[in-house]
User: Fold these one by one.
Assistant:
Number 1:
Amino acid sequence: MIRKALDVRPSEITDKPTFLGRREFMKATLAMASASSMGMLLPWQQAQAGQRLQAYKQSAVPIEDKLTPYEDVAGYNNFYELGTDKSDPARNASRLTTRPWTVTVEGEINNPRTYDIDELLKLAPLEERIYRMRCVEGWSMVIPWIGYSLNALIKRSEPTGNAKYIEFTSVYDPGKLAGQRVPILKWPYMEGLRLDEAMHPLALLCLGMYGEILPNQNGAPLRIVVPWKYGFKSAKSVVKIRLVEQQPITTWNRAVPSEYGFYSNVNPNVDHPRWSQATERRIGDHWLFSRKRKTLMFNGYADQVAQLYSGMNLKKFF
Ligand SMILES: Nc1nc2c(c(=O)[nH]1)N[C@H]1C(S)=C(S)[C@@H](COP(=O)(O)O)O[C@H]1N2
Ligand SMILES: [Mo]
């Protein structure tokens, strides 16, 4: 988002690293198709080293859109801790150590605890959630995430009456994560939601994608996914979750408050100060179709989430 131009260059589209050989990809696609016709998805074998996840339930909210190819989801990323180019996170993925890993849940709750990542993998049944994702820069993807509603962890933590917001803190390890040695952002990366947003069943505590544990570049071992908001609200590699009374300070809002609001709901009617948000480019589409798709209110999830914002001025609270 630091980069000024709407950065869709053919080189970025054609030079993506390929994670799957063509034969592996076809095999995986076929396995996926037959599994879904049985009403469930089996873990998808990837050529890339990546642990498979236990069988999981399929998404309750199916969508029509085609899945974005795995190599795009794992090869075209924003994860500034691992570099600012879209290909940096995949290239530098091994810099992130994801085991052992704990997540501390604290603040305005009656049950503060530090959870091991293996506990969190078993806290609730894993589900596949196929979500549209929209980056504030103007590109989008359709990703089969795996996880469970964030509200499962929040409920277990027993919020007090004072808890009004939730704050997420991403990993901080400047010794290994070269991006954190550069003051492009204030580290660690912080994000936040209003508590009722975080309690919405669509808000996902995400542990995997495409039938496997998350690749590091996508926010392993645990990230948040909020599909009706711009991508930067979905903090990666989370180590701390805090329930708080006041609206938390968040990384992009602090960096450029005029451009990145606290809410950052996907909204085609509220432009970014430097570009329109009315349309988007679906990654995987040919670059000639650049920004051909209409962006949908709340990224297409208005039926589910619009009531969270009834009566709110969405231009003011952008
Ligand atoms: N910790 C952290 N989380 C982050 C980011 C980041 O740089 N650091 N980038 C955000 C942005 S701008 C987007 S669009 C999504 C991209 O997630 P993906 O690469 O899994 O699609 O992650 C978000 N979460
Ligand atoms: Mo983004």
Note: The radius of gyration is 19 Å.
Number 2:
Amino acid sequence: MSDSYHFDTRAIHAGQEPDPTTGAIMTPIYQTSTYVQSAPAEHRGYEYSRTDNPTRTALQALLADLEGGRFALAFASGMAAIDTVMRLLQPGDHTIVASDVYGGTFRLFEKVLARYGLTFTYVDITDPAEVEVAVRPRTRMVWLETPTNPLLALADIGEINRRIRHTGQEILIAVDNTFASPCLQQPLALGADIVVHSTTKYLGGHSDIVGGAVEHDDEANYERLKFLQNAVGAIPGPFDCWLTLRGIKTLHLRMERHSENALRIARFLADHPAIEEVYYPGLESHPQHDLAKRQMRAFGGMISVVLRGGERAARAFVSRTRIFALAESLGGVESLIEHPHSMTHASTADSEIAVPPGLVRLSVGVEHVEDLIADLDQALGSLP
Ligand SMILES: *Cc1c(COP(=O)(O)O)cnc(C)c1O
């Protein structure tokens, strides 16, 4: 869609045309596996729904447009998207990874892909010099998450890009943009080669689908990834694509409210005596607040806190909220709370990227902020 339109307009219209046969304004759910051909190999661009499906085509066009990339591919989950990107590599290739990467990404890299000859080094990506120092002759990928899950650390994408290009090696920079969403942060414009999303989170926005996406600008990578999407086959069904299309129409409205609510809540938590530390890039006390202001349009809806009372207090806190539901995942309209050490990040226990047991992660929803603060206040007030 025309670059002259603002993000909010493109979120509603990009990639979508009224249905040519009926005029239906919403993209139909093309719930079909195959397409009739008029003669052998004569068809209208669709042969089989693993390869292409019109509902998925519309979603992919929208995702590419919003991320400012030329191409996007949709997947059955965020993990399927990440796995497919990693298949661009060969055995023996080396990847530099953000040390507090999403637990599932760490598990995929260490427990699955390492068995096929890929190697990984985990570094503190808040320091671009550490990323540069970790480059080896076989380094082919830098895997960034910013902000990270669950510690909300930021990578300076532009500076890491500059340092990586400086090595003269052909290294792809991939950014997992799930926490920020394309509404708040655009890694391709900052020099990243590949963006991935768990569309399960803010893009879908309603906790009703599991999905993933990959966005990029390079034609050769696109051809290879498109080939892999079809050859490996981890594609989303048309109904999930349709729900994601529908969810994205309010992405800009939701991100604005998520960010407003989260900033108010982060300030409340920072002043609360039961809380030892608050991780939120929108707080002046966040060590990378200036970078967050430069790199993000707003600070998003994710907050992590460490309880003064440690693991016991953390477990009690997450069990006592009434509006904040105790659940994994994030990015939906409803507020969620969880204990990463025993839930989302249990697979990192005893590893070099383990999270502190007193940590609690909040996904701040779009409910009224005063109700949310009152809920947290009552839960914190009754801690052991
Ligand atoms: C949830 C998540 C994933 C994995 O996505 P799924 O859709 O659950 O497969 C990857 N990265 C981040 C940052 C996530 O939060």
Note: The two ends are 55 Å apart (CA to CA).
Number 3:
Amino acid sequence: MKLGCLNLVLFLISVHLLNYCWSENWQQQKVSALTVLEHTEENVGESKEEATVEDDLDPEDMEVFYPTNDWQVVKPGQAIPAGLHVRLNLETGKNEAKIPDGETGKTGLKYWKQGTRHGMVNLDSKSFTAEELKKALKLMKLESNTQTEEGHQEKLRETFRPIEELMADFEAMNVVMETDMEIINKLVSKFNSSGATLEDKVAALYDLEYYVHQVDNAQHLMSIGGLQLVIKALNATEPRIQEHAAFVLGSALSGNPKVQIEAIEAGALQKLLILLATDQPVAMKKKALFAFSSLLRHFPFAQQQFLKLGGLQILGQLFQAKGIESLRLRIMTLLYDMVMEKKLIQETQDDSVQHQEKCRQYDELNLLPLMLEQDWCTMVPKLLTSSEHDTREKVLRTMNLMISSCRSEYQAIQGLSSLLDMLRSEYEGLAAEEQKEGETDGYFLGLLNSANDIIKQLK
Ligand SMILES: *[C@@H]1O[C@H](CO)[C@@H](O)[C@H](O)[C@H]1NC(C)=O
Ligand SMILES: *[C@@H]1O[C@H](CO)[C@@H](O)[C@H](O)[C@H]1NC(C)=O
């Protein structure tokens, strides 16, 4: 292990974690977790993308009412965020809503939830910029993942008690105001106890996952040896233990350099690669890929190991496997993010020793050339047939990133140029609508430009 180099990276990134603050409730924890990421983003040297639980969103959930300081008509079916002023316009018979006058000073993105509907409002302006939209999508994915992680987790919730009940139990046991760390200790010893049943162990992991989103909590898990237990559990004989262990690990690793270092030393990378390379249920692959992404992001040493261990071939096989189409976008996004990470570091002007060391580490990484060798030029555009704007956006930007080396491969793909033409006319329409609404730097305009760039370069 190159410990000197690892410690340096740790130092670099730990600076950004100083602003991390504790908060009382679930929602705030999620938001403050994002604050950490925002601080990282401000550093021009870092990639703009962070590791998140990339879960599929129900398009219906995206129908958001964007409130402003003026009354606006609420369309039928549109969910209204809590806390708005709502009135019935007697002339038109339509409902209207606006931000209450006292709240106009507030700024930023605000997550809301009402029954099964949820969304994001931007208190600064009527609509989102592409960057804000992305951020909002991520926040919502984070929220929706924790709240409606497929039917499977619904079943889990029925079987196992939710956190609030767990807390109530602890309180009833007269352990007033137990800290997160104490709860984590209990969950770890429950998981590690020889008397624990399979259900007990899965429940302990399920509860642990909730706590380790917080940077300090994940580091506490590490300091008491719990992280090592979780990594060991990645090759447990019981698949449900493996899957939940990967989920805990992914959440603990997200944006947490200390935990990343510990995990790679404990062999997490090899174990995750085995889960990705072998025949496993989709749910297991999904969690393994999540942990894998969290381990690699912003960690050049782990990326180097990933390449050495043949990880790119494994991702290539996974990308082309039948029945796991839902994972393709995540795989491509991870690769894009890693290529961008290097590019951004190299483009940053900074003479400091730390930056020079970072550059040196990224210089050794040859992900993009390996991707070209391993046929990613023809694999990536396959995803462009998606009907989701978010997917297309990511495919287009990845294609753009690779185009100088992939031009002839793109040209040889049957139907790609007519598909690009179709996307262009679709986004011309959507961008024009956007512009009519006063949006000068809109999301669809970005997509249109992206498609146009590729079309031009393929001529
Ligand atoms: C787990 O249990 C084993 C055996 O009882 C013990 O040696 C080990 O320290 C425990 N690990 C943790 C992290 O509690
Ligand atoms: C898990 O992997 C370790 C080493 O990586 C090995 O010693 C152990 O036997 C494996 N456990 C199972 C259940 O396969």
Note: Residues 383-459 form one domain.
Number 4:
Amino acid sequence: MNPFFGNNKNMSKKFETNAIRTQLNRTEHLEHSVPLYLTSSFIFEDAEDMRASFAEEKERNIYSRYSNPNSSEFIEKVCQMEGAEAGFAFASGMAAVFSTLAALLESGDHILSARSIFGSTHSLLNNFFPKWNISHSYFKIDDLDAIEALIKPKTKLIYAESPTNPGVDILDLDALGKIAKKNNLILVIDNCFASPYLQQPIKFGADLVIHSGTKLMDGQGRVLAGITVGGAELIDKVYRFSRITGPALSPFNAWVLSKSLETLALRVDRHCDNALKLAEFLEGHSKVNWVKYPFLKSHPKYKIAKKQMKAGGCVVAFEVKGGLKAGQQFFDAIKLLSLSANLGDSRSIVTHPASTTHSKLSVEERAESGITDGMVRVSVGLEHIDDIIADISQALN
Ligand SMILES: *Cc1c(COP(=O)(O)O)cnc(C)c1O
């Protein structure tokens, strides 16, 4: 056990209890709720302490770019939730994605990535990594048999998300885990859409799990954050790179997130109940072409979703009949829900991926990712479900 967590005796194996009771050691004030350690550095007792600390002979905080008590608590909680050995917390989800990949890859390496990934991750692979001679190939998540043909001598890792953004497609994590293991590739899963409460990719063979803490983890649209967790050896590489390059999470945001995780299970349960009800309402609606939600029986990967997830998540995707024009009319008619780019917030949000998060992709790339002009993505929040359905219903009509 990490020396900063000596208080956590007799820990339960239950998710909810760990999320609440994993806590930093108390100070001499015996505070009940963990304080905010808003400090950039930490002091040394004497010359020997200073030397030993920098030599990493003891586990302690030196400088908040390396570690901070609030970040450590946030990381410890997520490690328990994901079944991981270690982690590092970042200022945003994209800082986590970039730093993790940059820490593990070198010039000449090749990434095998799912085609349907977060828009900024897509841009990172397409527009920036090639500058450092790091190349990639994309695979379709419903054709895993084709993956092995794409493996090159310098392929180092597989990168994927499930459920995907914004199409809520499901990737068979167990099958992908087996392919990664067989070919000795590092499997990195962005688990942001599920949250650690609904799905733990390490169980299915992932080596590293990335989250944007900005989404369901915070859950109230307040802070940006990211985290990578996984095996101690790989995380050590991520840590070495990150403590030098400086993408660390701020203590304040870590404190907010660690508190948010106390209610993650409760919130995500309600997000999922509301999302399933909305998906059922939209299915068969006369103004809607199709609806996609992992826990709808009509979802093409319903069985795999049931196998690897506890519930379907907070995002419902659907297509308004009538293409771009009808889509725009729908957004203009929305009254209660927010038109915003975030997701996993307590406030329900509607977005138009084709003109926002995925606008940087070409029309062909969007089509391959299943993004059509009339597609709407709803991040179903925690308002009363009757009000969420009423707003979407009046906007469709
Ligand atoms: C939002 C998001 C990210 C990026 O996270 P930020 O905190 O916005 O940097 C990465 N992956 C997925 C799936 C996301 O939804």
Note: The chain has 15 helices and twelve strands.
